[in-house]
Design goal:
Layout: H1 9-15, E1 16-18, H2 29-35, E2 38-43, H3 49-58, E3 63-67, H4 77-94, E4 100-104, H5 109-118, E5 125-130, H6 135-152, E6 157-162, H7 165-168, H8 170-186, E7 194-196, H9 198-203, H10 219-232, E8 242-243, H11 271-279, H12 283-294, E9 300-302, H13 308-313, H14 319-329, E10 338-340, E11 347-349, H15 350-367, E12 369-370, H16 376-384
Parallel strand pairs: 2-3, 2-9, 3-4, 4-5, 5-6, 6-7, 7-8
Antiparallel strand pairs: 1-12, 10-11
Helix pairs in contact: 3-4, 5-6, 6-8, 8-10, 14-15
Length: 387
């Protein structure tokens, strides 16, 4: 699979200086953790689950979570598990190219049980999403994952969700983060990415952000994100990929604040796209994606297919970013120093910017590099054409 692979080759050629690379479920974890992009959640109770997965794959989704936890009622769990097995069996029989598929479970015992019940269809399963992850609660999940991996003979990834009140409460945060760090380090080879459960953070204080606001406008939440990245997202080799929080889209009858999308990038024919995005309260999403990147997060949890294209469009490396990263990583730059950027608008400091450049190049491998004259508007328009 590849990002933007659903676009005709001629269209991709017109958009990309360097096209997105191909990857598979067997690619290195470092590649897959960035390639996740917009991870689309779907309740496991849907009777059309197999059809939905194939449909979203055609639209460019490369990672999905089939949820047995908060998105369904307690009484629906047994039926949802049966439905999962049935739908996986159907998908396995079709042989279509599918996204990376993960199952969000409630309890550790579900992991081994589901792998056993899936049988040969389990080859489509990339791993499990582990809810409300702390050291105490997370260890049994990871032990169950390791046992299931041994039993089935396939690699299975874990994606812990950091959403417990202990992380939000200041007096317990440092201890909780240290415990999580110990736990995921022990199972480093199996932890693909760490996901942030911002909805649960907000619920601890009875909060809910409106479409005009991002997670970073809610100071309680922003402080947790900063501390999670500080401890678990370091670029020194000890960190993990941390993904952006879910965007909770819901209609708002009257906009209270000035739209956040500037007009200049949307001049001319793109003005219609700008208007459509504002009408659907998507300008806040675009701003939050940019703030995710600025704060060290990659990809995003999504609950609606319309969120996928914006996440992927803003994940493409710009030509300017690529040029800077190339200059910083040239062999002749190994000794350090300061370089004037090819765009002559900034100075690139070789040693301080090296980690950024390496991350940028990894993102370029999976999301590609835009042509010099192509902005995220063109990429977004191409991604939205079939949504």
């Amino acid at each position: 699979m590849r990002h933007f692979g659903y676009l005709p080759p001629a269209v991709r050629s017109g958009l990309f200086h360097k096209e997105p690379g191909e990857f598979t479920a067997g690619s290195p974890a470092r590649t897959l953790s960035v390639a996740l992009g917009a991870t689309l959640y779907c309740p496991a109770t849907r009777t059309t689950l197999a059809q939905d997965v194939r449909k979203q794959a055609r639209r460019g989704v490369v990672s999905m979570v089939l949820c047995l936890e908060d998105s369904i009622g307690d009484a629906d769990v047994p039926g949802a598990e049966e439905n999962l097995v049935r739908q996986f069996t159907e998908l396995a029989a079709e042989g279509d190219e599918l996204p990376l598929l993960f199952v969000r479970v409630r309890e550790p015992g579900q992991i081994g049980d589901l792998v056993r019940r899936l049988g040969p269809a389990g080859r489509l399963l990339s791993g499990f999403v582990l809810p409300k992850f702390t050291e105490e609660r997370g260890l049994p999940f990871l032990e169950a994952l390791a046992d299931a991996e041994t039993a089935c003979g396939r690699r299975l990834f874990a994606m812990p969700v950091l959403e417990s009140p202990e992380l939000l409460h200041l007096e317990r945060r440092t201890e909780t983060l240290a415990g999580i760090a110990r736990t995921v380090e022990k199972y480093r080879d199996r932890v693909l990415a760490l996901r942030l459960g911002v909805t649960d953070f907000c619920s601890a204080y009875g909060l809910r952000r409106a479409p005009d606001m991002t997670a970073y406008d809610v100071k309680l939440v922003a402080s947790v994100i900063a501390d999670v990245v500080n401890v678990l997202g370091r670029a020194d080799g000890s960190g993990f990929t941390v993904t952006g929080p879910v965007w909770e889209y819901f209609p708002q009858p009257e906009r209270m604040f000035k739209p956040q999308l500037r007009r200049s990038p949307f001049a001319g024919p793109a003005e219609a796209l700008r208007t459509a995005l504002i009408e659907h309260d998507m300008d806040g999403l675009l701003r939050e994606i940019q703030l995710d990147r600025a704060n060290g997060l990659q990809g995003k949890t999504c609950i609606h297919p319309s969120h996928v294209a914006p996440v992927h469009a803003l994940s493409v490396v710009s030509h300017e970013e690529y040029s800077d990263a190339e200059d910083i990583l040239r062999p002749e730059s190994d000794g350090g120093g300061v370089l004037r950027s090819a765009y002559t608008n900034k100075m690139n400091e070789v040693k301080p910017h090296r980690a950024w450049a390496e991350r940028t190049m990894l993102r370029a491998e999976v999301f590609g590099v835009a042509r010099e004259d192509v902005s995220f508007v063109e990429l977004l328009a191409a991604g939205l054409q079939d949504v």
